[in-house]
Amino acid sequence: RNHQWSLNDFEIGKPLGRGKFGRVYVARELKSKFVVALKVIFKEQLEKYRIQNQLRREMEIQKSLNHPNVLRLYGWFHDADRVFLILEYAHNGELYKELSKRGHLTEKHAATYILSLTKALAYCHEKHVIHRDIKPENLLLDHEGRLKIADFGWSVQSRNKRNTMCGTLDYLAPEMVENKAHDYSVDNWTLGILCYEFLYGVPPFEAESQADTFKRIIKVDLRFPSNPLVSSDAKNLISRLLVKDSSQRLSLQKIMEHPWIIKNANPIGICK
Ligand SMILES: CC[C@@H](NC(=O)c1cc2[nH]nc(NC(=O)c3ccc(N4CCN(C)CC4)cc3)c2s1)c1ccccc1
Questions:
Q1: What does the pLDDT look like over 149-197, one tens digit per residue?
Q2: Which of 90, 141, 229, 249 is in the most buried spot, having the most CB atoms within 10 Å?
Q3: CA–CA separation, 231 vs 246, rounded Å?
Q4: Which residues of 2-40 are buried (b: 16+ CB within 10 A; e: fewer)?
Q5: Each residue of 221-247: pLDDT tens digit?
Q6: 28, 98, 140: which to mutate for ligand 1, most atoms within 8 A of CB?
Q7: What is the 18 CA–ligand 1 centroid distance (Å)?
Q8: Ligand 1 contact via 167 beta carbon (within 6 Å)
Q9: Residue 141 is inside which H or E element, if any?
Q10: What is the model's pLDDT at position 2?
């Protein structure tokens, strides 16, 4: 049912956040009273940064995905100067706000989120989609605290198209920062980065400058601060994901079977 949407179908609420190319508002569809997130992107920005086809790809990719841990794209429309994406509303906002508020997550929370992410990525990879930009800012929480991957702006349909990534290097795999050919396993690397950050509160290769972060990533300069709250099983999983040789990184299937996940993750994806 490809209903032709327009701005008149919605009542726009408060702004939720902003990215480089647009803003997101909470909105309510007038007939159904259904609450959504409306992402507004200005066409002149698309032209200026030549990302029209990147946005088209994001829309086609996200529209085709239907998984409990992937934010739904219900549809889109445009007017003279803006493109509007009708997205699922995640009532509890950004995971990184919760992470920075708490400092770090418990092993149960961290393992539950890593399992949800692994399931979402397994689903994306079987649909030949590599997200490539999994970071806390792109992870949202719904009303039940279930993790949702948002913003497929950097995802690709498994072509080795290179994009100049903007923003932090912290989450990028060595082959991406070295601008080499990369494949699905960049997302496995990022799972290791996120697992470390969920438990320690900071990404593993954080440094004063981007140049130093770059060096630490290339060297895989991985250090575990002595912290009684982090089990050796957790360190084992992280060490088997943050591996320079992408073919040696633990597979998504093996992550789901890892002792630390089996012991700590809540399989329904919700942690009270
Ligand atoms: C991930 C970035 C991306 N964002 C989306 O696509 C986004 C899609 C989408 N759906 N639902 C969202 N929800 C929120 O952003 C949100 C934020 C805070 C909230 N709370 C504040 C604290 N309070 C105690 C509870 C409620 C609730 C919901 C977002 S963001 C983006 C990309 C480009 C331009 C703008 C945004």
A1: 987 665 555 544 444 444 578 988 998 888 777 778 888 999 999 999 9
A2: 249
A3: 25
A4: eeebeeebbeeeeebeeeebbebbbbbbeeeeeebbbbb
A5: 999 999 888 999 999 999 999 999 999
A6: 140
A7: 8
A8: no
A9: strand 139-141
A10: 63
- What tens digit of pLDDT does each residue of 77-88 get? 999 999 999 999
Q: Is 267 in the pocket of ligand 1 (CB under 6 A)?
A: no
118 CA distance to ligand 1 centroid (A)?
A: 21
What pTM, to 2 d.p., does this model score? 0.90
User: What's the CA-to-centroid distance between 94 and ligand 1, angstroms?
Assistant: 6
Q: What residue type is 205 in one-letter code?
A: F
Contact 183, 246 (CB under 8 A): yes
**Rounded Cα–Cα distance for residues 164 and 49 (Å):** 12
Render 220-257 in DSSP notation, one character per residue.
T-------TTS-HHHHHHHHHHS-SSGGGSPPHHHHHT
Supply the ipTM of this predicted assembly.
0.97
**259 in ligand 1 pocket by Cβ < 6 Å?**
no
Name the token pair of 240: 């088997």
Instruction: For ligand 1, say whether the CB of 136 is within 6 Å of any of its atoms.
Output: no
Buried b (16+ CB within 10 A) or exposed e, 213-242: bbebbeebebeeeeeeebbebbbebbbbbb
Would you state the structure tokens that stand for residue 92, as one six-digit string? Answer: 């509890």
